[in-house]
Amino acid sequence: MLKEAWRLGLMSAEDYQRAADFANVKATREPAGEYLPEEVIGALLAVCDADLTLAGARDGAIIAVLDACGLCRAELVAAQYAHYQRATRMLRIIGKGNKQRTIPVNTFAARYLEAWLASRGNAPGPLFPRLERGGNKIRLYAGRPRQMTPAAVKDVLDKRAGQAGTGAVRPHDARRTFVSNMLRVTDAIQTARMAGHASVDTTMRYDLRPDEELRGSADRLRAPQVRPLRPAPTSPPQSPPA
């Protein structure tokens, strides 16, 4: 706001510098959001497997990719069919600030993605298009599949969570869970690269690993042997009296 006022000539450079010269307030908070246990993801996928419509195959692939790749909603709906290399299981993503990254899809999620693509076909357009009411036909616009909206991804999770009885599942919690799971198996730099974070500090704010897991890690630290570094010095032998 101050910078815009300076640009409009409403304040001098000296007034701007004086108004902006204050110390930042430093504070830390626990990470926001909830960790999604494996059982929750499994329950969501189970109800998708039981749905034999196109919607079941598409929603199962969406949930599996969210869990395995940690995409945000905007990235997921913007992904195109041409962005997924099926032979190598690599998915190209365009993230915030038009930043591009390529991430691997693990074999579990790739099975769901392949099952969906077998029904979707190879038409150009969004990887996860909108469906007609009833969930059995892809919605087209000018002959091409129509793109979902980010809000529709939340609707998918709300619907499947209601069917599975898991309670509310928020799309960004899947991203937080992905980061937490990645930090179990690799370092923060690789995790930040996979998540599309410019800073490792941002990645660490996504870490939602349970306290019990952190306690277990602490308990696995080495236990030092309690012993003197050197043997205790002995007194020199006394000479017998003359």
Strand count, sense and barrel status of the largest sheet are: 3 strands, antiparallel
Q: How far apart are the termini?
A: 98 Å
Mean pLDDT equals 86
Q: What is the topology, as strand order, of the major beta sheet?
A: 1-2-3
**How many strands in all?**
5
List low-pLDDT spans: none
Overall geometric form: flat
What is the chains' assembly state? single chain
Beta-strand share of residues: 5-15%
Structural class: mainly alpha
The percentage helix is 40-55%
Number of helices: 11
What pattern of helices and strands is seen along the backbone?
HHHHHEEEHEEHHHHH
Rg over CA atoms:
27 Å
Give the topology.
Elements: H1 2-7, H2 13-20, H3 38-50, H4 54-69, H5 73-78, E1 84-85, E2 90-94, E3 100-104, H6 107-120, E4 140-141, E5 144-145, H7 150-164, H8 171-185, H9 188-195, H10 200-204, H11 211-219
Antiparallel strand pairs: 1-2, 2-3, 4-5
Q: Could you give a short description of this structure?
A:
This protein has 242 residues and is mainly alpha-helical. It is built from eleven helices and five strands.
